[in-house]
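RETRY 2/3 - previous attempt timed out on the joint model. Re-submitting the same 940-residue input unchanged.
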Amino acid sequence: MKLSFILNGATVRLDAEPDRRAVDLLREELGALDVKEGCGTGECGACSVLVDGVQKLSCLMLAAQLEGRTVVTAAGLGTAEKPHPVQRAFAEHGAVQCGFCTPGMAVAAAGLLAENPAPAREDIRRAVSGNLCRCTGYVKIIDAVEAAARELAARKGKTEDAR
Amino acid sequence: MPKRHAPSLPPSPPRADALAKALGAERYAFDARPEGCLWAGAFRPGALFGPEGGMAHGRVRGVDTTAALAVPGVLRVLTAADVPGANLQGIVHKDQPVLCGEVLRHAGDPVALVLAESPEALRAGLAALRADIEPLPGVFDPEEALKKGAPQVHAGRKGGNLLLGAVIEKGDARAALKSVPVLVRGEFSTPVQEHAFLETPCGVAQLLPDGALQMTVSTQSPFRDRFEIGHALGLNPFKIRVRAPHLGGGFGGKDGATVQCLLGLAALKAGGRPVRMVWDREESILAGYKRHAVRLRYALGAERDGTLVALSCRVVFDTGAYAHLGSEVMELSMEHAAGPYRIPHVRVVGRCVYTNNPIAGAFRGFGVAQVSPAFESLMDELAEKLGLDPLALRRKNALRHGDENCSGVRLTGSAQLTDCLDAVAAHPLWTTREAWRAGAPAFTRRGVGLAAVFNGMGYGRGLADMAIAKLELTEAGGFLVYNGVPDMGQGNSSAFALLASQELNQPPSAIGLVQPDTEQCLPSGSSSAGRTTYTYGNALLKACAAMRVKLLSRAAMALFCDNLEGMELLPGMVRHRPTGKSLPLAAMAGFLSRDDRVCVAEALMPVAQNPPDTGKSFFIGFPHLLFAYAAHLARIEVDELTGRVRVCDYLAVTDGGRVLHRQGFDQQAQGGVAQGLGYALLEDFRLAEGRILTGDLSTYLIPTALDLPDIASEAVEGCEETGPHGLKGVGEVGLNGPAPAVGAALYEATGARLRDLPFTPERVLTALRKKPRRRRT
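RETRY 2/3 succeeded.
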């Protein structure tokens, strides 16, 4: 089928089998290698992407389900020059070890903060509980999401002060 | 409840790899997908369910490839007959076929390899394959496997199913145990554990026109892999190039060949095209290596004042179908069997046994995780019997610098277990424990437990633990560290960049890293054994020192200085302080030849001098000289109605010598504890006649963010004189504490000593039923 959706801010149009897994479409056709795959059965969360702002597992989605949607992967959250506060906080607070879960984890955290700008630690735990990490024990991941929330709040404060 | 302490200040600089990974920009072996690549996949008929098969031991009568070859897009189906070399892999013992031609020895054994144009064609090809396999009686219990008449896993093998029997002995434990005033005994078992790294084993390989084989693979041991592949496939190991980009986790499970030999074979038959192989999660669990399941029988004797006198221990290891590192893992178990204590009379007997179970091998905590719950449980029992405080009993017997350990090795390195115990003793989580326990909500019970643990570093005697560092001044005036030891996530390559930045007095941005590549980097051992940063770090410090002298002397020449006096290496330049004359490094790089811009240096980990006269049957690795130590504390809550255990608070105090990078140190402690808590409570690997019943992440549960507390990590800063800037390896010791600490806490909460891991709700509930509510003191 002809498929059109927005990937990390750019419109993509391509021909795809409608039942192709979204993770394969993103990785193999569109080169979005930041989207990882750890299980293919929706258990590990490594393939998480934001679809219309909501965390989804791209290994459990089919290509056709992306039609007309807005998809954001970890690479779409921020860049080296301008990382997303979550990405910067992950790096600064030691939330990254092997890093294979990290893109999906960052997507989950960014999705949480978009919805709940001031989450408690338990909220963060719940929000990332679908993303397995075998390296960190999660402590520093939760620290980082807290720090990102603080930074986002400070930014928002500044913007409001400027008005 | 005490609040978790704030992150340590001043903050460590971020790891060199962290931001790129958070941005999703890092590329792993999983992401290597060269243009026009083929796909390879293994056919493992023993794992098939239903009437078609499903067995762990069988004779291969034939493989029917006709239907598979008829699948569009399937190019080749290879069997054992197509393997050009010995068709045997294995790190120490070459006993594992790349493709099985005669016998299946476990459910994950492969009999064929399919090459296809696409993943879809590969799947269809694998599904169309048929194997004719005659079932053989299997053996799934190591003690059964040692009995006369037991099915033989490797028929005709001298020694039968016994891979290795070994003894470590000091003093006369048998006699001493007969006369000690206090004796405690116990039988324990520890389960299989799956690494569950997020990146499953994977890689790409290609045969080049000149006959060289090149491979990019998720591996902990690229330099050794060449020899394993070369032996298995009949290739010159020096014509094999292995590259190891950042790994998506390893934990021991990528030490030794996973996909390597299969991929190499596929590349040999792919007409020069690149081939990609990625194990899916189920295949990774099925065919990958596991932590050994172990049975342990212990006796521990002491004086009435708590002084330990004698210990006897027998361990039986289930290594599964192949040796892998079975003997070596058991060696570590036996060497650590008596705990981090001074005991004059010790006898440890080990047997490592083949069965038709999945292959066991290296896993963080390498044998030590299996003995820790046992010796620590007995320490608690002893404390209770003697009416002593469990922390004080440990402190009294703790190994210190200069002591002789239980293998008879004089500890010449740093040993600060007593400081770790003191830090726990002073911690609010310990001092407030009585009040906390008394505050248990309705239908819950609380308990607080502690554990003292240790973990040897390096390969041990008999196998040189060496690394060779290579450092280059780049044409731009920066530096490149050619890392020889894969970074599986522990951050060693960032530590190397940090060391180089400090030693060369350059900003972090001036230091680049080349990840392991057998062509560009130099042999440096595997990423394992708590030796990565220690050994390579020492080599790198030497290379940096040589580079500094080189740069100062070349600059002295160019600046017409008579000697190196007053010459200093500054960011981006060398300056002659007295005159203020300087030379930018980029300018210097312009007139130095490539050869002259490179420094190479090696380091060797020291081993025990005058090794004790025991442990003779270990081929390599006995004994160890340097150890990291830790004291752990767990506060748990047990649900009386469900048996579920919640870990409320956790503290790990670690002696890793000097701390180079506090954040990285805490990462290792917290990560090790997380895996240890999974091992203690959740990870219930189930087998039935060698077939895995927990073959995916929906049935084999590893901890999520909701299953773990905020693990607190504290450092006891010391100095290991032989280490780079005084550090010791801390990668493994953290895993050894949780099972014993939680076990002790469970005893306090329930009155039951659980001696079989993991402490599942079912086991806890059963124990609760047997023990009525304990009277609180």
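Chain B has three domains: 38-136+201-278, 290-460+611-770, 466-604. Closing ticket.
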